[in-house]
Amino acid sequence: MSVLITAPTTSIDKTQIKKGDFIRAQYHAWSSAYNGLVAAVSSSEIRVLYIVKSGNMTNYITIPVEEIASGLWELSWSSNFTDIRTEGAYDT
User: Which domains, and CATH codes, for the chain?
Assistant: First the structure.
């Protein structure tokens, strides 16, 4: 099931993804994905909290709905690691 709602404008379906979900996100220009926690969800963006590779600080990724709809992101998320949802190239 898609994370997007497309009627009449595209927005994020907040019943499909919520704060606290685990997420793996990769932007099309990045060589690897980031794993993190969904920190906030609005109709226009998803904010992801992740630990940087050095391990001594955290950072946020903001994922705009327009970029998801354009196919610029590969997303995989779950609230329990059993039911995994995908969007983008991970989507099968």
Answer: 4-76 (2.30.30)
